[in-house]
Amino acid sequence: MHALQYEITLPADYDMDVIRTRVATRGHLLDAFPGLGLKAYLIRERGAGSPVNAYAPFYLWNTPEGMNSFLWGPGFQGVVDDFGRPEVQHWMGLSYEEGTAAGAVPRSATRERLAIPEGVRPADFVAGHLERTAGEGTVASAVAVDPRRWELLRLTLWEQEAPRAPGDRFEVLHLSAPEHAGLTRGRHW
What does the angle CA 82 – CA 88 – CA 89 come to, to the nearest 5 degrees? Predict the structure, then answer.
């Protein structure tokens, strides 16, 4: 499993309904994309619990071929044409779990990013975070790591508004999950 996200920060006065319309008219285009476990179309709005307006889609890929087909194909090129080429962050998937609300359409998401401290065994740090459960109302949760920066990422999808928790909070506009059943549950090592 590969996790991928790009976040496009938009001007403070940007009309976020433009993004909502974009997702409403184009979101379905990845509903059958080969190799894609899931894509959560995420936004944050300034003043609604966020310091910025942002469009920040998050992907879990079952195959590198699917991810590459997206990045080097017309899907991502549409993002580049409309917003410029964003920095694409990616992490190695370490765990995927479904929660008590598995199968529900998520309305919100939380993203927690943690630096793995120097002097700490990375495997122990990660294992400690895999043991955390996301709680009631969780649709799914993924844990991944960027070993270049030694950063752990946890993305959790929620059936309702996300509870107050560490990290960034997002609204989910759409979920494409064509190969959701192929996402390996549990620890990936």
Answer: 150
